[in-house]
Amino acid sequence: MIRQYVIKAAQLMQWGKIVLPLSSIKFFPPQFILRNPVTQGVRFAFNEGYEAAVIVFNLKNSKELADFLGPIQFLKFMDRFKKMFRQSIEGAVDAGDIITLHDYYGDGLSLFIRAGQSRSGLSAIDSIMRIVAGQARRSLHSEFPDVQMILETGYMFVEKKSYSIHEAVLKAHQQAVAMAERRVESEFNELVFIMSKIISQREIFLLAQPIIDVATKEIRAWELLTRGPAGTMLENPLTLFSVARQTGKLYELEMVVLEKALEQIKTSECTQDIFINFTPLTLGNAKFVRDLKKLMDKYKNISPKQITFEITERDSIEEMRDFIYNIKVLRLMGIKIAVDDTGSGYASLNTISEVMPDIIKIDRSLIQNIDKNTVKESMLKGLLLVAKEAGSLVVAEGIENAEEASVLTRNKVDLAQGYFYAKPAILAKKIAT
Asked: What region, left, alpha or beta, does residue 206 occupy, with left being phi > 0 and alpha being psi -120 to 50 degrees?
């Protein structure tokens, strides 16, 4: 009898640990929550030129499930919950991109991954969240058909400029949890307030990076790159746009970027083409064409033919009924369309077939060390054939040395940009020839 009570007590303690609320972890030293392997993995990702992000999968109704199932069955459910998520993650994320998967608190799991520096990483994270949550939910339902599992997800990028990677990891994890839980009087509301302030006061700034004619080495266009308030965690564009997306402020932010871009074109008196980044979510918004025309009316001296809208992410466009329509209207106005990050996955090729863009931008991942990799050069040649078939110009991104540039020259790539040519800077006045 005593032994039975001991077993039950141990089980209850284990169950209690699993449903421990997040607020409780604040009483424990950070080293017991986030161990060195996480910090080391994030540091390694940074050193390799990647970003690092944490995705939180939160089981919102864990306490209700514990009451419904009872301690023993709930323990079994949670064990399967974690195993199913691990299997789903292994199927959805490249092994090399997984830093670690942890259950820091009982209500959910936290996945740390490395991500590319371009904004296409945001839609990739959204895709991971949907795939993993969907697969895990279906697998668990087959074993626990009577259980209604309510999942919440959120993510955040780890701040690179923090004085301590360990502290940056803790902060990113806390904010990702806040995004997942959407808690009242939480970090989520604080981030909503900060993002609203940035938008209302237009606290962003734009840098311009030249796009170079590979044959003549002349500047043909400029890409405008967004940065958040200097010296803050939101200065990083990935963090800025991920917070805007999760707080429902993405459209408003991108419209501020557009207005600031038009202001810079006017102030600098630039007459060369300007590339401005947009997500499909914004380009497919039913209000976008109307709002765009209002802004263009304020800047009548800027020709729409000078503007290229660059599709920066890989959200599914099939269900965006206004997306293709808006693209057609933009083209009638004279605005050109570019597809970014081509070569980084199937989705970008699918977008090319749907949009038939004027410009195809080849992702840095394909260009990096292309002079040492014949397979990458063969892939480049294939994309050049795709571009020719689509009637598109090609821009190679992320050129960092003369060797990479020489591969572009011998393959007759149209345009290029990267640190080899110039780093982003303020768009100066009267740069046009």
From this structure: beta
